[in-house]
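Weekly sync notes, structure subgroup
Attendees: PM, AL, DS (notes)

Item 1: joint prediction request from the bench team. They want all two components modeled as one assembly rather than separately. Inputs as received:
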Amino acid sequence: MQLEIIASSSYYRDVDDSEPATALIDLKELIRPLCRENYRRLDRYIQLALLGSGLCKRNLPPGKNLNQETALYIASGMSPVSSKWDVQEQIFRNHMPPKPAHFINTLSNSAGFYVARNLELRNKNIFVSRGKQSFEAGLQLLGLDLLEAGCDEALLGAVEESPLPLSRHRQRLEVPPDTPMAEGSHWFLLRRPKELDTAKTGVAPVGYFDFPESWLDSAALAAWIESLPPQDTLVHCDSHTASDRAFSRLLAGMDRYDPPLAYYAVRTAGVVCTFIAQQQHSSLLCINRDRLGRHHVLRFCRTLP
Amino acid sequence: MSDCTGVGVVGVGLTTCLGEGISANLTGLARGEGNYRNHTLNNFTEPLQGTFLTCRPELEAATVRQRMHHMLDTALDEALQGANLDSTQARVIPVFIGSSSYGIALAEDIYAKSLRSGQKEDSIATPVSGFHQIGEHLQNRHGLLGPDYSFNTACTASANAVLAAVQAIRTGGAQYALVIGFEMFNLTTLSGFAGMQLLASEVMRPFDIRRNGLVLGEGCAVLLLHAAALNNEGIILCGGASETDTYSISTADPNGSSIKSVMLRAMQDSGVTAKDIKAIKAHGTATPMNDIAEAAGMNAVFQPLPPFFCLKPYVGHTLGACGAVELALMAATLGVGELPASAGFERPDPVLRAQPITASMNAPPGYYMLNYFGFGGNNCSLIVHSKYRPRGSRQASPHAT
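Output from the run, pasted for the record:
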């Protein structure tokens, strides 16, 4: 099954706190023209979600509106970590209970609430996490929803922040102390493919995702890759997969795609968005192995495979 | 109405303040009230009083990680007992987890110990990602390597996990699915709810005119779902719905419109109508606003209201776990053919025009609704079909109050 991408948007920014004053740009001015209301007491995670989702709405094809029945999915490895951090400091260092607005901001689905309110959505608002494979998890859930006709269209955001100081955040993430860091908010409006609709409107979709899969069996995955039709495919994979004997021969014939994006948990979504924007090759295969040896695979194609 | 073609609940494991295991929980329900314990949180400038419903108080001396794993392992073992899953099936089963706090208690513990050790400058708040903690344990200890999904949608987290698991089975993507609901005591949640003035002073009284808030609880429920329909006995998940109410981030629209909407969608998804619903498990947080919105929503859908009851006075509000915990409890009570009385309710609130049952009653085979509402505007409603028959001799009374 394929998932058709009607529209997408991408906000990405390196976060470098060698100059703390300018490490994180102020998002308020970027968000203001995208919001129906002047929302108050928003943390950075909610701001990132509003920014990305607002841009995705702005990128809708001419004549296309966002249906209020659109399901909303947000995927993230860490969710609003800066708010959680602040609240725990308030409790354990300052010995004070959190203020209500701060406590509410620690909830992962608060971002979804503001996005739904801003875009006037009333269908489900789901937040899902699976570490560095959170984007893939969100796409899998959303795919099930579309497949089962729980919704006709779904909006998926992959949102991640990198709070300061980065040295502490790197410790939390257990990444090396010199790892370049980033924040991002990448959004996709998806539906089941409707070829007739595309023919009628003359608006080509951004592209398609194959229904993403998690593979336990490396040999089966390798066989699946080998069965893919030869086409102009680039591959993005983690270093473990690249050096794995089961894949090295298969992947040797494919050009690698690794845009210069820094570390954040939903980096794969950023890689896909960068690929989409470059408009050069026809398809991208992303393979990410987790620490249990499971491979999480997604394939983007500009046209229906 | 013919039987729905749903997903069978073929294994249930449950740990709450009432005890470990379905049997202990049924005994606790029959006892009539939860195991309330008052906590004084001394690490604040002004000590906070908070009533809390604790699992296995005797395990308080154990480490946070040990308690967490104990709750998960106990419920999982019970759910899988007798399921006859072979190792290959267990290895690939998708796991749908719902929790509000995930590993927050663990993160708090590490941070507090670090601060106490005198390393204040080097201590990091939120030192570990909470989301990993449950999934990693299930993978490492139990070899559950199928795709895992950690839902975090406040009090509807594990209810949404149930809906997604049903979708995974309905679409043919899985024969079996596991749903885990987990919630564990932590200071962030308790002090956060205290700060919002949502905690009851003593006990929960849903839909009572004297209701003054909720009591938090901890618990773990595991549900094993299977594609095959059950023949003579059991609980079938017929469907449900999840919607967003953007009225307010902390409460549903008090006119009940959004709650009405999600209940109607759930029934439509399940192929049933209001007249098919035998009884409702209400969300029933006993906060002034929730009960107003919930009563308004139920009154807008059902005329007259079917019998309804609340489980939180027994086990506390287990937040993200309540979807699975209360479904597991509901399955257990339906399994013995009985609906529990709504503990804590004595005096009706005329504004609500809704009174929960105050005595236990027979639960005939048929359709039942379970409602869950959460912060962030998340509303969720599930429909189950019970094939169990009442084993007692009492006659069902339509309205016990």
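Discussion: Chain A touches chain B through 60 residues (CB under 8 Å).
Action: AL to compare against the crosslinking data before next sync.
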